[in-house]
Design goal:
Layout (H helix, E strand, L loop, with lengths): L2 H4 L2 H9 L12 H8 L8 E4 L5 H8 L5 E5 L2 H10 L8 E3 L10 E6 L11 H11 E12 L14 H8 L3 E8 L11 E8 L8
Parallel strand pairs: 1-2, 1-4, 2-3, 4-5
Antiparallel strand pairs: 5-7, 6-7
The structure holds S-adenosylmethionine (SAM).
S-adenosylmethionine (SAM) binds next to β2.
GO molecular function: S-adenosylmethionine-dependent methyltransferase activity
InterPro entries: SAM-dependent_MTases_sf, TPMT
Keywords: Methyltransferase, Phosphoprotein, S-adenosyl-L-methionine, Transferase
Length: 205
Amino acid sequence: MSQEAILDQQYWEQRYRQQQTGWDVGAITPPLKAYVDQLPTKDLKILIPGGGNGYEAEYLHQQGFTQVYLLDIAAAPLQNFRERVPTFPAEHLLQEDFYTLSQSSFDLVIEQTFFCALPRSLRGAYARQMFEILKPAGKLAGVLFSEEFTAPGPPFGGRSAEYQAYFEPYFKFLHFEPCYNSVKPRQGKELFIELERRERPQFIA
Ligand SMILES: C[S@@+](CC[C@H](N)C(=O)[O-])C[C@H]1O[C@@H](n2cnc3c(N)ncnc32)[C@H](O)[C@@H]1O
């Protein structure tokens, strides 16, 4: 079976059911907390795609952000989240495929271990879909792995030059550098990114 064929909803539901969730650190991570803590207003429309158990959504909610959306293709983590954070608006929990998401006009999308969970063949489409769902000048911010892994994925690693090629047509690069405050197991292995959506795609011939 090909890599792409198995990374569907069923695959992820099973990972949660079998508690094979090594990516789950149980809390918002320091780079994302530091980023959230400097956001200027609480009314930004924010999406956390492939957000799993949703610790970023929980933190944002606790801090008084009112337009936070947690998206995952799997039902299990959203159910966990609902039980853990009962005051979070149920209509902001989206069990959908990121690639066919109907909501748009986000001010900010937060990335953590979602990009690396997707088949490599969908990376270009990830950048394009981020462009589609963000407002002009909206931001994509978070962390990406900065090295290749020897073990078969997910997670799938990568290098910054490869990533730049996906994002360059759609985004200006505000931050795209080694992350200094990663959680311990990911230290030296992450890039911190903050990308600003272009008004329109810019393809260099
Ligand atoms: C490696 S986990 C990361 C979860 C979370 N970001 C974290 O750091 O704990 C990847 C998540 O992406 C979700 N996912 C995979 N493909 C997806 C898709 N096409 N649309 C939405 N969610 C997806 C999975 O169900 C899973 O919860």
